Amino acid sequence: MGWLRKIFNLLWHSVIGKLWVTIIVLVAVVLLILGAFLLQYIDVSFAEDAHDIKLLFIITAIIGFLLSTFFAFFLSAKLQQPLLQLKDAAVSISKGNYSTRVNISSSDEIGQLADTFNEMTEKLEKLIHDLNHESNHLSNVIRSIRDAVITFDANGEVILTNPQGHILLNQWQAIEDEWVLSEGLNYPKVPAPIRENYIKVLNHGKDSTDKVHVQSYMWSVVLTPLLSNGIMRGVVAVIRDVTEEHKIDKIRRDFVANISHEIRTPLQMLQGYSEALIDDIVVSPEERQELVQVIHDESVRMGRLVNDFLDVARMEAGHINMKYQIVDVSHILLRVFRKFFVYAKERGIELEYIPSEESLVLQHADEDRLEQVFTNLIDNALRHTDTGKRVMILPSVVSLNYDSFVQLKFKDEGQGIPAEDLPYIFERFYKADKARKRGSRSGTGLGLAIVKNIIDQHEGKIAVESTVGQGTTFTILLPISIHEKIQ
3-class secondary structure for 247-313? Predict the structure, then answer.
């Protein structure tokens, strides 16, 4: 009878099954009552054949009961089948299979329920597809942003980030120990450089824009509250590396400040000495001539400053005009040597030029720009060399990696450059000896920057070696041919 028990349990654990079991029980009770009356009637009326009739009646009742149970189970199964399909479809959808449909073709209430269910799942599938499409689109947009985008929840946990943000989080977490952190710190997952701003945005619900300096980098940080129905859900941080912009802005400010500083002194001297001449303060012709000479020298110096400023501006903007042609470097060196020979002799400095026996012809060079380079280097050497010392110009031809170069050495026995200043001497406005700023022939700090840029334009190299108290040597390598290799 185990199969009957299973059938009974199956029927009993469904609503319709319970109904049918109740009906069957009622029918059985009615049959038993009727049977009892019939049996009693048979005992009284049919005493002779009572036993056979009772047996037939019992067999008939059992068969009727079994048939009614079978048909009840059959009808219950037919009614349960569509409901079980709906149940299985609902379970499948709950597991993420939104394409699930039920195949019920009846026109009764269950069929209508199945049609409504299929329509609901179809709309749900379309909605999920649209949401996934928008989510993927948003993810692609966030990933394509070059700035770091990080989303924190209200507890300071990271819930969304793009690749740049992930990299930045790892970098900042690596330097967390360098920041001073208070005891019992809240929001430990929020990087220390933006933690204070994060807390402000979280508490006040207003945007925050700031710049933070982390090690040698400058970052622009924009924090925006993430609100949902007026409830603070978290904070979105957009972080951009503005180190280069910061450097450019600093260079611009320094450039303006240096121009103002360099031009102010000659202008003041021109104004003062010209007023002295106008007011006839100077009496003797010698003093008048001296003032006129100072005014002339300062005007020449100011003109040189303006030209240097213009050269630097053009070079940094990439607008420097180069007139490339075949150039004999030995002719330029001889011309520059003669230009400074008298000045060096007046100062008691020995200017020595040792010509090279080899040809110093460059196939692709700008003669005027190279003369500007040699002039700046020799002028620097003479200004920083004391009386009785030497300044030497040593040209030659060298071969490096099967390429031929013109090598030029400008060597002086001057004061030398401190080792800590050597890496910066080619930066504009940098002066190694700060005490020289007020000298009569102090430079502007632009000469070596111009030299470096011109050498770079010729695809050459410039290097410097210096020892304080012993002198400085600038070495220039210029390729004889930048297109053809010498075999």
Answer: HHHHHHHHHHHHHHHHHHHHHHHHHHHHHHHHCCCCCCHHHHHHHHHHHHHHHHHHHHHHHHHHHHH
